[in-house]
Design a protein that fits this description.
The chain is mainly alpha-helical. Helix content is 80%, strand content 0%.
Length: 176
């Protein structure tokens, strides 16, 4: 593999890894914001006189918060299905493992087996290309799951904040 081609493949992999980090940052920021708003809101709940309208809004708020938290957790720790073929023999495990990706590295029994596997891959440009392309695909699938969860979480956060603002506006209008 030419150096230019390898550089391009590694750039794509790096871009995918950055997208993953950005999804995590967005999810953690939303979780922090949601936590701050929820603490202030729960502190004010005891001062409110409840009626059926406020109860409905509070229920909508808490359901939205719980669903947003679940989506944020799924964004931070996505579950993706591996498309690897089942039934591979143990003798193929070293060649099937990806010595450049943490999951593949952990499949080696010890450091010596990992060293042999890594040397076998590094010495073959075609194997190296295949491994990095496979890794790009796997990270892209993880990113797809992460960003789907982040998008859903944003909508649940918006619903939660809209219901919270509606409650505040309703309570304020009743007092005046």
């Amino acid at each position: 593999m030419s150096i230019d081609r390898r550089a391009e493949i590694l750039k794509i992999l790096d871009d995918q890894n950055h997208l993953s980090e950005r999804a995590d940052s967005k999810a953690i920021s939303m979780l922090s914001m949601l936590g701050i708003f929820t603490v202030f809101f729960v502190a004010q709940l005891s001062n409110m006189t409840m009626n059926s309208f406020l109860i409905v809004l509070v229920v909508i708020y808490f359901i939205s918060v719980v669903l947003a938290i679940l989506e944020i957790i799924l964004a931070i720790n996505p579950r993706t299905r591996s498309k690897k073929k089942a039934g591979k023999s143990e003798s193929n495990s070293m060649s099937a493992s990806q010595p450049t990706f943490f999951e593949g590295i952990c499949k080696f029994k010890d450091v010596e087996e990992y060293k042999k596997g890594l040397n076998g891959v590094v010495n073959s440009d075609e194997k190296m290309t295949d491994i990095y392309i496979s890794q790009i695909y796997d990270v892209a699938q993880i990113n797809k799951t992460k960003y789907t969860c982040v998008r859903r979480a944003v909508w649940f956060v918006v619903v939660a904040l809209a219901s919270q603002l509606s409650i505040i506006a309703y309570v304020f209008a009743r007092k005046t």
